[in-house]
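Lesson 9: reading folded outputs for more than one chain in a single document. The general rule is that every protein is listed as its sequence immediately followed by its structure tokens, and records are never interleaved. Here is the first one.
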Amino acid sequence: MSRPILKSAADIAKARIAGGLAADVLRMIAEHVKPGVSTEELDRLCHDHIVNVQKVIPANVGYHGFPKTVCVSVNHVVCHGIPSPQKILKKGDIINIDVAVIADGWFGDTSRMYFVGEPSPLARRLVETTYEAMRAGILQVRPGATLGDVGHAIQTVAHRENFSVVREYCGHGIGQIYHEDLQVLHYGNRGEGLRLEPGMVFTIEPMLNAGKRETKELADGWTVVTRDHSLSAQWEHMVAVTADGFEVLTAWPDGTGSYAAIA
């Protein structure tokens, strides 16, 4: 693996702007996530906000042929769900919306979970545990720590609740390139892997399944589902390694609400 691209303070300032815009899309769409709405409509609203309000570029459109602005992954869809007019949200669904924008040549990339009405107790526990796992991973980030520390913290939280960690997909370096070489696994051993340095910027985006960890990709070449049809959840933040810890570059503009702050 090539050496990760270290960012200057000026670079991180640009990444922070892009990350903030991506987070703002997730704030905007929250009130529209309700029963009877199609995932296509959610995609249209996100596209219009990015292009017409923020006046930046939706990074996913056309990326390796992806046809839409956001990934919308419902229930047993692990990631990369393609918005569709046929997919209508119903009470009890859990969904992940994953958005990426390009602002002044810099990428912002983040995702979060939403409840459609009241979820089942299992669904709520899965979503809340996945957030806790992401938060635990982020809290490991500091100069001198390793990516193994991050992965170990995530899997420890997941396994405590008897959830499984998806292994086929991972976090990644990000900056002026959407997916830089650096890979952030969501499992691992303390002290192993790349040692973190100030200026590294990457995503931490664990996917946890209520059942087994195995996944499969559907015939559309994008949508990934759990093999056992169990529920799956994911959260994603962009993180910069600072001189003495970390900074979340995709912090929610309206705060974390009922979820624990990441600090």
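And here is the second record, again sequence then tokens.
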Amino acid sequence: MIEAPVEASSAGSLPASPDAQPRPSLTEQAAAALRRLILLNLLPPGEVLNEPDLVARLGVSRTPVREALKLLAGEGLVTLRRNRAALVARLDPADLVPLFELEMALESFCAGLAADRMTTAEIDRLDRLQAALEAARDDRDAYTRLNRQAHRLIVTAARSPAIAEAHGRAFARLERARNFALAADGRVAESLAEHRAILEALRAREPERARTLMQAHVARTQSLLVVRLTEGPRR
């Protein structure tokens, strides 16, 4: 449930710090909560977004919920329908496969460069992230966050700001699709093994092996996504 902002009393309250960030509005809080549920596929593609249910789930009135749905529609996460309940936007392979192909090209290339360019400190950090991923295998929220950090570390270790910028845009657009594929039976354990192999190739300073392993890792996620969208998710 989203908590409503606390109003300051008129007497005896301290002035806000000029550097303090304003508290998000109820609409922004509702949008953030719904965005998280959609990106993690806790509200799956095609799910009907019934307003009374969302009001009860989020603990806010209908107005912030309606405004939040409009915000998320602008992000491509929600489909608004005239005189009908909104839907969680469906995932379309025709839109997503080219993005996965871009991610595959960028990340495999960066993995090859990173094998030569990563510092010892960066490899140690990636090792710690791997351990954290292993520990978070049953925590979808934490796993998603740590996975994002691990991929980003490898890309930035390639020392190519232009590639890192392009990758950041593509990777963000694929987060929901990646999580959808990750929900396939056995995929988390499989993905962890792939990450371990990539880490070892980087530690051994083997650019071609690191590149090949990263390419296979992203390709596997893409193929699972297409299969799951074709067959339909298990509910």
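What the second record shows: The longest strand covers residues 84-88.
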